[in-house]
Specification:
Oligomer: single chain
Helix content: 40-55%
CATH architecture of one domain: 3-Layer(aba) Sandwich
Distance between the termini: 38 Å
Number of strands: 14
Number of helices: 19
Strand order of the largest sheet: 4-5-13-10-11-12
Largest sheet: 6 strands, mixed
Structural class: alpha/beta
CATH class of one domain: Alpha Beta
Length: about 425
């Protein structure tokens, strides 16, 4: 499979270059040159499989010319020892896709572990080393840290906004050691993201390192996220109704992954883009005006993104046509009080505990359902509620049990390097290692 930059569709690069380089020199985003459409029968068949089964079949379809089938099977089996189950809340209309059964208890385990497996394969073949730079608003960093921990040939530096991630999220970033380093940035996620993008555009840094990204700017974070849309469809298709996905959205990689799966032929009827007060995309869908702004701090911190990188990919998938995008994607936004109320409603009505991000997905589906009652809704639950234990306990007046994978981090000592929110500070940290 070949890939091109959204800034220059005529120039194609290999799978290996798109994976390991992450971002084109022209500062566009890589997209697949062709999107295979194997037909409805293909998706009906594979959607009955586990996450690993689905990952293998789609990976074979996409990448068999670069990696043998046997090797692909071994890679995906290693990446996905867990599944992504769907839980029904009511009589077949509202379903929760639980994406928190991986090691970091967040949906980004799927993309990070697949990327780590693929990068490890190519680095072993070429005897190269890669330095991964990643910005996180919460869950990406933990998934990347755990997914790439100890992988030979890979060093990881994670930038995160100081005071804007939960305690457990921070523990996941700052306590693992080995090949993982955490930079605590005195700024917002947008600042962290801008610093990482500037690093990829800096000639001196790129001469010193083979830089790569594990953020959703890397197309190999998005491709595997499409696998769980297929898995979810397989679990609800027996309902016999058109399927709608409500995706809590921050940087819009997760929603773009769903649309990519739809482009391959997955029968998705509609998408809901659900955000917090960082409502740039819902506003765009209502008005046609795209106006990024500084991020606003909310209780759904992993979605506090005022200038989402993957908006370019999302519009590109619809031919940069506003009407086409609006036909298939609806946008809604909700504030903290609405989020808290939704968490309480679901807990009281169904006994189900949601993190604030999942609650926004629920609200998005509820809003869309008001005029579309004949649809089957799947809202994406992006993180285990224990990752926001203090907040969830306070809102629901309960005591969320902390999974063993998270509890083991609680008593570990935090190690981070504090830097200001300026690219020069990041470059100063990185460059001494080269002199």
């Amino acid at each position: 499979m070949k890939f091109y930059s959204t800034q220059n569709p005529s120039k194609l690069v290999s799978m290996e270059e798109a994976l390991l380089r992450s971002m084109p020199a022209d500062r566009g985003l890589y997209m697949p040159a062709t999107i295979p459409t194997p037909g409805a029968a293909f998706f009906d068949k594979i959607s009955d499989g586990s996450l690993a089964d689905i990952a293998y079949e789609i990976s074979k379809l996409l990448f068999s010319s670069e990696i043998s089938a046997d090797k692909l099977k071994a890679l995906v089996d290693h990446a996905f020892p867990f599944d992504t189950p769907v839980v029904a809340l009511d009589r077949g209309k509202t379903h929760v896709l639980e994406l928190f059964h991986g090691p970091s208890q967040a949906f980004k385990d799927v993309g990070a572990r697949y990327m780590a497996a693929m990068m490890g394969y190519f680095l072993e073949q070429s005897n190269r080393e890669v330095h991964i730079l990643v910005a996180t608003s919460g869950d990406t960093g933990g998934a990347v840290a755990m997914g790439f921990l100890g992988v030979p040939g890979i060093k990881v530096t994670i930038l995160y906004p100081s005071g804007r991630v939960s305690d457990l999220q921070e523990k996941q970033l700052t306590t693992l050691g080995q090949n993982i380093t955490a930079l605590e940035v005195d700024g917002s996620f947008d600042d962290c993201q801008a610093m990482v993008k500037a690093a990829f555009a800096d000639e001196e840094l790129n001469q010193a390192y083979n830089l790569a990204s594990a953020n959703s700017i890397n197309i190999f974070r998005l491709i595997p996220q499409g696998f769980y849309y297929v898995r979810a469809y397989g679990q609800v298709k027996k309902c016999g109704k058109p399927v709608v996905f409500s995706t809590p959205s921050g940087n819009f990689g997760n929603l773009s992954a769903g649309v990519l799966a739809q482009r391959m032929g997955l029968p998705v009827n509609h998408f809901v883009a659900a955000t917090n007060k960082n409502r740039v995309v819902p506003t765009y869908l209502q008005s046609g005006n795209y106006e990024p702004h500084a991020s606003i701090e909310t209780i759904s911190n992993a979605m506090d993104v005022g200038n989402p990188s993957n908006f370019v990919r999302l519009t590109h998938l619809f031919g940069d046509n506003y009407d086409s995008l609006k036909e298939k994607v609806s946008g809604y936004w909700f504030d903290d009080e609405q989020t808290k109320a939704a968490m309480q409603e679901v807990y009281q009505q169904y006994g189900y505990i949601m993190c604030p991000h999942t609650a926004i997905g629920y609200l998005g589906w509820q809003s869309y359902q008001q005029a579309n009652s004949d649809k089957c809704g799947i809202l994406l639950s992006t993180a285990h509620p224990a990752k926001f234990k203090d907040l969830v306990d306070d809102i629901l007046e309960t005591n969320v049990e902390i999974p063993a994978a998270l509890a083991s981090l609680m008593n570990r000592e935090k190690h981070s390097i504090q830097i200001p929110a300026h690219f020069d500070a990041l470059k100063e940290y990185l460059m001494p290692a080269t002199v």
